[in-house]
Amino acid sequence: MKKIVVLSGAGISAESGLATFRDSGGLWEGHDVMEVASIEGWRRNPSVVLDFYNKRRKQAAQAQPNEAHLAVARLEKKFDVVVITQNVDNLHEKAGSTKVIHLHGELNKARSSIDESLIYDIKDREIHIGDKCGKGSQLRPHIVWFGEMVPMMEIAAAESAEADIYLVIGTSLVVYPAAGLLDYVPVDSPIYVINPERTQVPARRDVRYITEKAAKGTSELVEQMLN
Ligand code: OAD
Q: What is the CATH number of domain 1-18+65-104+151-227?
């Protein structure tokens, strides 16, 4: 069975009503990204950060997967599929994908602020100042912020290195180390890039650009791959 690895970003969830990071004038839902998505921002003002993610969690819980997430899930009929997503929503899982690696964490989980292995499933519940982990420290969103390590990188790189076909959907490819995953894709494996804007994959032979929104671009490509 051929292996397809999908690298997705905020653009795949745009048609489900969730805002991307860089399409809104540098602000994410009205906030400077570094204010709400960095370890410094958390240290400076944890209640602003908690409030921000409480809102994102509610919004994501109400969102439904779109045709792009559903098409990616359908690929499992014929291929061994691994999804590596930079997104913190769970729309790939809701669509039915069974192997999803969240590079930047998950909104529906909380974790200890002193022990990153202490992770709690909180579904769509809020986190407040004073909510504690089992070791007595403040709970925080299970999100990888700027300034933090990306613990899933090693696994994601190993999966990328095994891809027969690589799909890049709805990501600006400007955030590292995630964008560096493309360097692990075997040189003979084609890379398809689905994005209405032109993004650049450096120094690759076989890159096929599909200049469409995720829902249309992905469902058409998946249809071809399954037939
Ligand atoms: P970005 O906001 O940087 O990029 C979104 C991309 O989606 C852009 O290239 C858009 O052109 C594209 N796009 C917009 N609408 C689309 C649609 N309907 N279909 C397909 N593509 C569309 O988001 P990411 O690349 O995901 O990290 O950003 C990477 C990381 O930076 C995020 O995970 C986040 C952020 O800061 C953290 O929060 C740690």
A: 3.40.50.1220
Reference 131, options 204, 54, 35; nearest CA is: 54
The pLDDT of residue 213 is 98
Query: 20-62+105-143 in CATH: which number?
Result: 3.30.1600.10
The catalytically annotated residue of 69, 92, 102, 104 is: 104
Domain borders along the chain are 1-18+65-104+151-227, 20-62+105-143
Q: Output the pLDDT for position 26.
A: 64
Averaged over successive runs of 10 residues, the pLDDT of the chain (227 residues) comes to 97 95 73 92 96 96 98 98 98 98 97 95 97 97 95 97 98 92 95 94 86 98 97
**How many Å lie between the centroid of ligand 1 and the Cα of residue 19?**
9
Residue 74 burial (CB count, 10 A) = 20
Spatial separation of the C-alpha atoms in residues 48 and 85, rounded to whole Å? 25
Distance between Cα 114 and ligand 1 center (Å): 29
